Fold this sequence. Notes:
Belongs to the low molecular weight phosphotyrosine protein phosphatase family. Keywords: Hydrolase, Protein phosphatase. By secondary structure, the chain is an alpha/beta fold. The chain is built from 6 helices and 4 strands; from the N terminus they run βαβααβααβα. It has helices spanning 13-27, 50-58, 75-78, 87-94, 100-104, 125-144; strands at 2-7, 33-38, 81-84, 106-108. A 4-stranded parallel sheet has the order 2-1-3-4, sandwiched between helices. Strand 1 (2-7), helix 1 and strand 2 form a beta-alpha-beta unit. The longest helix has 20 residues, at 125-144. The two termini are 12 Å apart. The structure holds 4-nitrophenyl phosphate (4NP). 4-nitrophenyl phosphate binds at residues 7-13, 42, 117, 119. 4-nitrophenyl phosphate is lined by residues 7-13, 42, 117, 119.
Amino acid sequence: MKILMVCLGNICRSPLAHGVMEHLVKQEGLNWEIESAGTGGYHIGAKPDHRSIKIAKLNGIDISGQQARKFNVNDFDAFDYIFVMDKQNYKDVIALAKNEEQKNKVKLFLDDDNVPDPYYDDELFEPVSQMITTQCAKLLKQLKS
Ligand code: 4NP
């Protein structure tokens, strides 16, 4: 199973989802591959935002080695599931899809809601991290069965 987590910058939300999901699948002894990407290219090559690194570390997860990259059309074929953090990410990714099979791989990470963008609000990192941790556990359970 290959899962791609996507947000706008690939420095705040999707690196957390990437790190948390990777942590959980390892705990389960699964050989799944998890990656993340951004729909925007502003932060290509950067490591995650220091606030995401910090909150992940508090939960025992080291995401400091990740490097931001931009989503590209090859990702549609390379991954089984593409989870996007908000509805704008959904529109941006779907706009690049060539067929229904590719479109069907794209899902909102939260079933019907946005993971709020914490970039301009320090206070959001804690609730965003909690949301992501809870949802990763739920998705893992669903995808395993
Ligand atoms: P992310 O947050 O999409 O969760 O990585 C953002 C990071 C950077 C910017 C926007 C959102 N930015 O505009 O640079």
